[in-house]
Amino acid sequence: MSDSSDRIVLRDVKRVSGETIDIVIEDGRIAEITAAGKGNGQLLANVAGAYVSSGWIDMHVHAFPEFDPYGDEIDEIGVKQGVTTIVDAGSCGADRIADLISDSIRAKTKVYAFLNISRIGLSRIDELSQLEWIDKEQVKQAIAVYEDFIVGLKARISRSVVGDSGLEPLRIARELSDDTGLPLMVHIGSGPPDIQEVIPLLQRKDIITHYLNGKTNNLFDAEGHPLQVLNDAIARGVHLDVGHGTASFSFQVAKAAKRHGVGLHTISTDIYRGNRLNGPVYSMANVLTKFLSLGYSLEETIDAVTCHAADWLGKPELGRIQAGDAANLTLFTLEDERVELVDSEGERRVANRLITAKGVVTGGEYIECEVRA
User: Fold this and answer.
1) Using one digit for the tens of pLDDT, what is the confidence trace for 73-121?
2) Contacts (Cβ under 8 Å, ≥6 apart) of 48
3) How far, CA to CA in Å, does 232 sit from each of 175, 200, 205, 243?
4) Chain-centre distance for alpha carbon 211
5) Helix (H) or strand (E) run with residue 337 in it
6) Is 290 a known ligand-binding residue?
């Protein structure tokens, strides 16, 4: 799409429902959606037969490359993986959020962020262990300045992060959420604090990320039944996000959740350089393939990275394919191919269907994906 005035046709592409269509793009917008073979314009090569969805949205990434271990380049975990929109999950607090925004301006991937309630963000991995690192006025000032970029607040509530601070960082986060009107994304993990104390503090539109983790302090009992605090949270409208990550996704817990009808709200990767290159995450397509292997349909799986995520963000246009909208599309294939998958617990399972990201259309440009699994 070197010339934005060209009419580009994605010919013979398939919706997730299986319907084959042509999509005509002009000046970076969807000009027409028509029957297969009927679209007029310059053909975009090598997409016939691919599936097309609205651009994938990853609700939990770490995209600030200066931080180690939890950092990566924006486009490496964005458009190169078939993901047109990422939401950085609290890499930066008020001290560095301006730097993340500066990075995002140079990227081809659309970026939003949860602001870490700790001003130091993930420059340390115990960022909530000292309450003086939570500056409420700094948080509010950052939100006022960057209101179009910040979509919520992030609090990592697990033992290694909060140390002796216990539940107090979450209580402060709740107060900040109430004061600013922004929801919380709460990371859950090893206790203390106990999960039974954490979840009741969450309200409608707040997010539990890592809800399928296999740690002892998780949301399911020994027989795989969801805890009552989880059922109550779902009834209140609390949102569930996968946040696979290095240590936060268990096939066994995911099977229990499916068996009991829990989820599926949004699938996210919690990706950063280490688990992208060395696993167990690798890519969004790899994580989506895991949910197909668990028995979710293609439509359920793709909805969890398109319309569900877009609705939570309050940007439904990001989750649809409609004439007149900006062209924001992911093209991918579904192959009958044997693949070995691994979760965060080291459990391996073999699947026979593989999702592979092929390319994205965003910002008036077609970008071929570099990640193939």
Assistant:
1) 999 999 999 999 999 999 999 999 999 999 999 999 999 999 999 999 9
2) 11, 12, 13
3) 21, 8, 14, 21
4) 13
5) strand 329-342
6) no
Query: Alpha helix (H) ranges present in 153-240?
Result: 159-162, 168-180, 195-198, 228-236
Predicted local distance difference test score (pLDDT) of residue 371: 65
Using the predicted structure, report yes or no on whether residue 302 has a pLDDT greater than 80.
Answer: yes
CA separation for the pair 218, 195 (Å, rounded): 7
187 marked as part of a ligand binding site: yes
Q: Is the dihedral of CA 137, 142, 148, 154 positive or negative?
A: negative
First to last CA, the chain: 25
Residue from 357, 326, 351 nearest 336 by CA: 351
Q: Is the dihedral of CA 278, 282, 287, 289 positive or negative?
A: negative
335 strand-pairing partners: 354
Q: Does domain 55-319 have CATH number 3.20.20.140?
A: yes
260 is in an annotated binding site: no
Spell out the domain ranges in the chain.
55-319
Q: Is 80 assigned a ligand-binding role in the annotation?
A: no
Considering the chain, what percentage of its residues have pLDDT values greater than 70? 98
Distances (CA, A) of 43 to 23, 244, 286: 10, 37, 29
Does the CA dihedral 220-226-228-230 come out positive or negative? positive
Structure letter (DSSP) for residue 194: P
Residues 6+ apart with CB under 8 A from 123: 67, 95, 96
**Contact predicate 213/188, CB 8 Å:** yes
Long-range contacts of 349-356 (CB under 8 A, 24+ apart): 349/251, 349/293, 351/289, 351/290, 351/292, 351/293, 353/289, 353/292, 353/293, 354/289, 355/285, 355/288, 355/289, 355/292, 355/301, 356/285, 356/332
How many residues are given for the chain? 373
Query: What's the pLDDT at 370?
Result: 85
Question: For the chain, what is the mean pLDDT?
Answer: 96
- DSSP code at position 266: B
Nearest CA among 319, 323, 320, 302 for reference residue 23: 323
270 marked ligand binding residue: yes
Once rounded to an integer, what is the mean pLDDT over residues 133-144?
A: 98
Q: Is 210 annotated as a binding residue?
A: yes
